[in-house]
Design a protein that fits this description.
Blueprint (H helix, E strand, L loop, with lengths): L1 E3 L5 E3 L2 H12 L19 H14 L7 E7 L5 E7 L2 E3 L2 E7 L3 H8 L2 E8 L4 E11 L2 H9 L3 H9 L9 H17 L8 E15 L7 E8 L2 E7 L2
Helix pairs in contact: 5-6
């Protein structure tokens, strides 16, 4: 069977996928009780609540609780998204790192705004962060990179993120050379490695509920500090 797409193109009908998704939607989502969340008891500022939720997700066995989706837009306004690892969350903002020459690095140079999304399904929790993006100092970027593993340094030394790759063999050769250098020179610099900090203007905390009465608490930064407000799910 053929169906029409939104722009007049045709595509094969994937009935099996539709049926599969319907089955998934009908399944019980959580096997254990979900944590309670009383928004009235939430702190005046969002950072302490984020720290509490992050620690709770890790304690509950969430795989890679520091994995965060980063959304940016290119110079034409087209959205882009990928998953990276959180490096810190402090009074300055939410930190992650990448090469300035990568796709995200170029996009942030042109439009220094980003949205972050954390999803911790083990507790049916999400955290969304939106804000302006600034870069850390070269010294901070160096310290960030060299506090990580040899593998992370080796990957950064390749420094060709988002470029077109001609073959897996080329990647293997470059990776092996970078590993050798990282092991021989643990202090080797990666000049394009950059620390990015999202300075939050909005942060939302989402607590899932089995009956779909989800709790959504949004913090908005104002000239007088943070304003808290509940949102309809």
């Amino acid at each position: 069977m053929i169906r029409k797409t939104g722009r007049g193109r045709t595509a094969p009908y994937r009935g099996a996928m539709t049926d599969f998704l319907r089955v998934l939607h009908s399944l019980k989502t959580w096997d254990s009780p979900l944590p309670s969340f009383d928004p009235a008891s939430a702190p005046a500022e969002p950072l302490p609540l984020f720290h509490d939720w992050f620690a709770a997700a890790a304690a509950a066995g969430q795989t890679e609780p520091h994995a965060v989706t980063v959304a940016t837009a290119d110079e034409d306004g087209r959205p882009d998204v990928r998953t990276v690892l959180l490096h810190d969350a402090d009074a300055r903002g939410w930190h992650f790192a990448s090469h300035a020459t990568s796709a995200k690095g170029r996009q942030l140079a042109a439009r220094p705004e980003a949205a972050l999304g954390f999803y911790w399904p083990v507790q049916a929790r999400q955290v969304r962060v939106r804000g302006h993006v600034v870069t850390g100092t070269p010294e901070e970027a160096y310290a960030d990179l060299h506090a990580r593993t040899t593998g992370a340094l080796a990957s950064a030394l390749v420094a060709r993120q988002s470029e077109v790759l001609d073959s897996p063999a080329t990647l293997e050769a470059a990776s092996e050379a970078a590993w050798r250098r990282a092991e021989a020179e643990p202090d080797a610099p990666a000049p394009t490695w950059t620390l990015y900090i999202v300075e939050p203007s909005e942060i939302e905390f989402f607590q899932g509920d089995p009956h779909r009465r989800h709790i959504r608490l949004r913090y908005r930064r104002t000239p007088d500090g943070w304003t808290r407000e509940l949102l309809w799910p």
